[in-house]
Amino acid sequence: MRLNPDHFWTYSEWLFEKNALRDGAILSVTLALLGFVIGYIVSVLKYGPSEGFLRVSQIIGQLFTVDLPKLSFRRIYAMAKLAVKESIRKKILVLIGIFIVAMMFAGWYLDPDADSPARLYLVFVLTATNYLVILLGLFISCFSIPADIKNRTIYTITTKPVRPLELFLGRVLGFTAIGTLVLAIMGLLSYVFVVRGLDHSHELVSIDPTAKSGESTYNNRHRHTFTLNSEGRGTTNEVKGHRHIVTKVGDKVVIGSPIDDLTARIPIYAKGLEFTGRDGEKNEGYNVGYMSEYQKYIEGDSLSRAVWRFEGVRPNLFRDVILYDLTISAFRTYKGDIVTPVGGLIHFRSTDGKVKSEDELFKVKEFQVDRRSVRTKLKGFKQNEEGKDIATDLDFFNDIAANGSFEVVVRCQDRGQYLGMAAADIYLRPADLQFWWNFVKGYISIWLQMFIVICFGVMFSTFLSGPVAIIATVAALVLGFFGFFVDNLVTTTSKGGGPIESLIRLPTQMGSQIEMELGNETLQQVIATADRGILLAVSQLKNAVPNFSQLDTSNFVAYGYNLFGGLLARHLTIAFGYFVLTALVSYFFLKTREMAA
Amino acid sequence: MATSLDQENRPSAHDNDPTQTIVETRNLGKVYRDFWGRKKVQALKSLDLEVRRGEIFGLLGPNGSGKSTTIKLMLGLLFPTQGRVFVFGKEATDVSKNERIGYLPEESYLYKFLNAEETLDFYGRLFDIPADVRRQRIESLIKMVKLEHARRRQLKEYSKGMTRRIGLAQALINQPEFLVLDEPTTGLDPLGTRDMKDLILRLRDEGKTILMCSHQLADVQDVCDRVAILHQGELKELGRVDSLLKIQDLTEIHASGLTDEAKNQIREIIEKSGGKLDRMDNPTTTMEDLFLEIVKESEQRPGRRGGRGGN
Fold first, then answer.
1. Has residue A285 been placed in a domain?
2. Which residues in chain A are closer than 8 Å to B113, comparing Cβ atoms?
């Protein structure tokens, strides 16, 4: 899992500095204007210019003068309760049964040899729940109002003092309630499934009484080794993403339940990462030729180094040991001794560089999290007045990180090899969040996606028939999922041009690498302009639908990272934005629709 | 045989404020169009009528005459393509007018998965009625439509008559001033029909205004104060029922205990005065009256077969 810079934005940073509020406002105004213009055109066709304008203005005016102020919670509650009853009597809860059956057979398909069974289990339950709940939201929301119109039960609703917004809100709240119930049950079942599925124990096979080390039995396709301290306590080595606590009680050695497999790390990330080149001068880091721009590289056995700068690290978060994780990768320019990993050196230093710890050697653990620690009382160097390093005992928070700021310096040890790193590849681990709470946060993410699907489903069903509303909602989801692709199309000059140009290139078998030659400059200009217009429209449309790939935070849970509160708050805001948007569109359609037509 | 049309539209004796108009349509028209906006059918043409407070107004007409369209326009379920409708002085599309309206649709379009209590509770909430008032009304309405025994059964298990009755109950949950009944007696047995008609008259006597449309001409004749007859979307006749049905040049005499001699004398008098005797024999009752009498007798003396009529 890769954390992108945008994951670290705080809520206010995202809202104001990254212009989320501004973009949201622009989108709202654009859609409102577009809605007004379309509504006016339709109205003019029906009633003529002046009467049409009057009607559209009336609808907008009534929203603020009557329909919003006179919303009744009792009516909304009644509609919501009806939606819940309807769903339950239509046996929606059978879905939970399907989910249980899926989990019963999941054991057959989940690879027992996986490196990280916890991740596999979590990805499975989160993905299965996500899809099932989104499908549920899709079907219950898209068919309800069309069914009411078809059965004409809508006659008995709209002839009561029910306002259009109440019709929308009632449905959305009702379906969200039933979805929440289903999701909560699935979440509970999933939690039990994961915890029970991962739980196992080992017995002792052998122990060396002098070295106090031993080996466990082979269970669940792995075995552990362990070492005990003088008090008879210790942990096993890490296999398949977990360890066990080992204690010696009398003559008996007890290997406990797995730990560290279900975690929710709260990482403290560096504020910045800087590189110096082989000559000791600052640079952007070396590019080793990978397509990905994520990590930059430093060269081995040279002055090249990576420096992370940490700020605001409070001493009270740590006791005697500072835990930190490394996820550095290696790039070999020669094969060398392939069994021995590429080595690196790491030390901590004060921001003015006058105090630093001793270099510690590490071996790169590719594709794994290297769990490391440094003691708060450590050996290192202090510069004297002449600028010479004097070896001395140091206190991490008094000497190195005096005001909570310090730097971490990494060098590559092996000549000709490279180490790759990004800003998020080192983080401190003060304390872990309770796993269950992170799990709940993951489910809140799924809930938000379901909520948005329901909003869109109900919105489309106010003016489309059930099946068409489903297609429209799915189309919106797909557009959201592939938002980045649309962005690429619009922002970069993709080869082969826009839709019209591509349409010409395809039958004429014109390769995408060459310039389009139609022999008519004006025509080509027209096509290029039209293509730009279409792409711009699609990109605007894309902004009006949620980017579901961004809302999916299951990886945070599966990979054991705390799902940042700021990120969740952003997603909540986005969901609320779409809720308001869909409510307004639904209001407009319900207000102008003839229910008996 | 000529009928007279009462163009004066006089209010009936029991109107509490006959000058007040509950519904008014002005030059009302509706054209149904297809997806492309092409005219499919003109369902209603320039309809002008008024429904006044306290009366039972009947809309009559064959299938496709525009009755349902008129009702839907009044309720705001359809929008007029020409003219306007006012209900309680407000545009028909104004939702707030619905506070004072009760509507029984043609086929009691209710949620089949709810039971009687839930149905009434649901519609009660839609009128924003507080819980205690709602409970009271649900009790009295269930009793009124005689569904006490089936109050907890889902509507999908109801017979057509029961569905009609719960439909009427939901239309009355807000104690409306104006009731719109679309085919109120459809699907009811003669007993149910009679009950429904009695109930409609009782509601009128309580001061409610009622608009009903029906194919059952006898029902319309029995309960309506005024009727409008529509055909092919046009208003063909509008007036008081008793005036519309009165045949001016016929005289009806009902007498009992006459001897044959007396009957002959009557014939002679008619001839002498230049009149023409069309018919003079023993009248027959209506099938409805006969049926109701038999049922009533059967309830009083179960197991006996009535001795009317020959073989």
1. yes
2. 85-86, 89-90
**A193, A224, A259: which is the final residue of a domain?**
A259
Nearest CA in chain B to A596: B77
Token output for B246? 């009165």
Average pLDDT over residues B282-310: 67
Q: Is the ipTM of this complex over 0.90?
A: no
Residue type, B101: I
Which residues of chain A make contact with B111, given a CB cutoff of 8 A? 82, 86, 153
CA-based nearest distance A462→chain B, Å: 15
Q: Give me the helix-helix angle, A435-461 and A466-481, nearest 10°.
A: 130
User: Which of A213, A233, A259 is a domain's end point?
Assistant: A259
Using a CB-CB cut-off of 8 Å, the residues of chain B touching A86 are: 111, 113
Whether residue B118 and residue A596 make contact (CB cut-off 8 A), yes or no, is: no
Size (chain B), residues: 311
Are residues A325 and A255 located together in one domain of the fold? no
Domain interval for residue A322 = 268-428
pLDDT tens track for B70-129: 999 999 999 998 899 999 999 888 888 999 999 998 887 899 999 999 999 999 999 999
Q: Does A391 share its domain with A312? A: yes
* 3-state secondary structure (DSSP) of residue A306: strand
CA distance linking residue B178 with residue B51, whole number of Å? 10
Compute the residue count for chain A. Answer: 597
At residue A8, the pLDDT reads: 74
List the single residue in A45, A163, A594 with the smallest CB-CB distance to B79: A594
Hey, are the CB atoms on B98 and A161 less than 8 Å from each other? yes
Please tell me the predicted confidence (pLDDT) of residue A211.
Answer: 67
A41 interaction partners in chain B (CB closer than 8 Å): none
Same domain, A249 and A388: no
Kindly tell me if the per-residue pLDDT of B1 is higher than 60: no
The verdict on B95 touching A (C-beta cutoff 8 Å) is yes
Backbone region of residue A363 per phi and psi (left: phi > 0; alpha: psi in -120 to 50; beta: other values): beta
Spell out the domains of chain B, with CATH numbers in brackets: 21-245 (3.40.50.300), 252-302 (no CATH)
pLDDT along chain A (597 residues), means of 10: 73 85 83 85 83 86 90 94 90 87 82 83 92 92 92 92 94 96 94 90 84 85 88 86 87 86 86 91 87 83 94 85 90 86 93 92 85 90 89 92 92 92 89 89 94 95 93 87 73 73 86 80 89 78 77 87 88 92 91 83
Task: Say whether both A424 and A298 belong to one domain.
Answer: yes
**Sequence-distant (≥ 6) Cβ neighbours of residue A263 within 8 angstroms:** A432, A435, A560
By Cβ distance, the residue of A74, A77, A155 closest to B105 is A155
Mean pLDDT of chain B: 83
Please name the member of B72, B99, B113 whose beta carbon is closest to the beta carbon of A161.
Answer: B99
Chain B interface disruption, residue of A46, A154, A155, most B CBs within 10 A: A155
Helix (H) or strand (E) holding A157: helix A153-158
What's the predicted TM-score (pTM) here? 0.82
Of A77, A155, A160, nearest to B123 by CB-CB distance is A160
B176 pLDDT more than 70: yes
Integer angstrom CA distances of residue A147 from A143, A151, A294, B163, B278: 6, 6, 50, 19, 58
Return the residue matching tokens 């009336």. A58
Q: How far is CA A206 from CA A210, A236, A505, in A?
A: 12, 13, 71
Q: Is residue A325 part of a domain?
A: yes
User: How far is the C-alpha of B141 from the C-alpha of A363, rounded, in Å?
Assistant: 82
Q: Is B122 on the interface with A (CB under 8 A)?
A: yes
In a domain, A517, yes or no: no
Mark yes or no for CB contact A156/B103 under 8 Å: yes
Is residue B192 less than 8 Å (CB to CB) from chain A? Answer: no
pLDDT computed for residue A365 by the predictor: 84
Q: What is the pLDDT of residue A109?
A: 79
